[in-house]
Amino acid sequence: MPMFSRQILLWLVIPCLASLPSWAQDYEPQKVIYHVNYGEISRINATFNNITNHIEALGEEAINLKVMIHGPALEYFIAASNDQDKQMALDSLRFQNVQFLICKNTLLSYQLTREDLYEVEKEDLVQAGLPAIVALQQAGYIYLRP
Q1: Euclidean distance between the first and final Cα of the chain, in Å?
Q2: What contacts 105, CB < 8 A, 6 or more positions away?
Q3: Full-prediction pTM beyond 0.90?
Q4: Looking at domain 29-144, which CATH architecture does it have?
């Protein structure tokens, strides 16, 4: 390619690179609610990986992230009581300020209390998962269900 053509190409490309949209480089702070109501361990693990990647892309200070747990997903928290790998997965996300919200209706259907689950506090309980998701959306949270 002749030198003159390269210079013209650079003059055309450089302004385009400078005008990339801001989302291509940085993200605005986000409020997100992930919805997990499935029991497949591989799918839950993939969702937890998505959450970790999401946090890494924004930085912990730029995201308020909650995970709604109900239905068969509750079994992950039951199993975590005796499973170190699951405990580490949950602790790692909690350490990054992820809050897991647990549906009380699901607890009742399993005939359990929060004490039967791994590290669930009183403030992590919601009466019903779906209405709580809607309330979070009304408060500006973006809904994701991987």
Answers
A1: 47
A2: 70, 127, 128, 129
A3: no
A4: 3-Layer(aba) Sandwich (3.40)
